[in-house]
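subagent[fold] <- orchestrator: predict structure for attached chain, return tokens only, no commentary.
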Amino acid sequence: MNSLSTVFELSDDYLFVANAEGKLTNLSSSIYRKLNLSKADLLNKHFLDLMNPDDAVSIHNNIQTLQDGVDHFNVVSSAKNKEGRTIFIEWNINRDTDSKDILGIGRDVSTKLNEVRSEREKLESLITHTPAAVAMLDNDIRYIIHSKRWLTDYGLGDIDIIGKSHYEVFPDIPQRWKDDHQNCLKGNILVNPQDHWQRDDGTDVYIAYEIRPWYNSNGTVGGIIFYTQVITDYIETQKELEAKVTELRRSNLDLEQFAYVASHDLQEPLRMIGNFSELLKIQYGPQLDSRALEYIDISIGSAKKMKELISNLLNYSRVGRLESDLKMADIESMVQSQISEHQLMIQDTAATVDYSELPDNLLCVPSQLEMVFHNLINNALKFNKSSKPKVHVSYEETKTDHVFRVEDNGIGISKDNINKIFLAFRRLHKTEYPGTGIGLALCKKIIERHKGHINVASSENGSIFTFTISKSLTE
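subagent[fold] -> orchestrator:
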């Protein structure tokens, strides 16, 4: 007993003993030293008089648990110290199972609570002012705190939703989201980059969200946090863009069809013009003067140029019409064929055309890829003033693409014209070299149909055309 008295006299903790009815029978000296209370005020009073009356409901509920057989409970209550300052005491209340006496041990947790309160205020300030729609809810899915952006994004105005159920604020949310909330309360994290929510008023809302559980200090789930972004404007813009792309594709198909039909229908009258001009020269040439013969030759030459242009235009329009002709092709044989086709040109210019190891089994549209090699090799030989023109075709493989290069020692391309050469009907040397100006535009269109790209690096020492064929193509 003397030992107990010593403990009650010297302890800095707040200690009390009360009988089974809760009346105080002994108190530690610290209660009188630190709190604004006297022994006369407290002895034979109920131990609840040590605590703030505002906490009475919570404490009474806990006392009931003692009467129902629970042997202890914890509660935090405020009190005034000698200086009149409010402090917070965490009480551990225990009932002796034999004597039924009640033992209370209190400890000043003001500093700890102030730190917690400070951290909470920082958290509240962070969430309130974060430029995103964020909300923190408890286990009953009731609002604890939310950002200002939450009210703005969901059209809530200045409504006070703290303490309200999420389902009261948004009575029209789908059941699958409610299921997600319960799933999150089990400790799971849920992420959805795009979800559709049709409101009761018929409004379509699209949101991206992440839902995470938050935890109490004892490790239990205290509730959930919503991180959301309304992406309705983005989705609507995306839909508009997709509609425009679809319309553009349809328009391009119409243009390709028109070009194909127009080019095809032009060939017959053009052939007639060429043939009758040659017949006119053969049959009536001796009767015509030199000026008339010159005019006939101009007509025949123009007809041939127009025939070449129409042929190229037909090839250009066909590129978009042959998307299903993917086959395995031997590229080495393809390049050899083009070298043979240009043999006369190679001999006339004393040129050298060679290649390094090329794939013998590559998925492409063979007829189209052959056009690419034809145009690039032809241009390399044509636009070349070297006494010994050189053309080299090489190949390498990356993780995603087949990469081809056609390198020459020709006249090169100026920096001003690098971005123009792949445009249709753009001829950089109209008087010096023959052509229609559609060859490189055709190459670009073909390569893009093969999910690749084409570019050129050039200098006064020549040009290197690089193009890729995607490995993602499937038959």
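orchestrator: received. Logging for downstream: The first strand starts at residue 14 and ends at 18. The chain has a mean pLDDT of 81.
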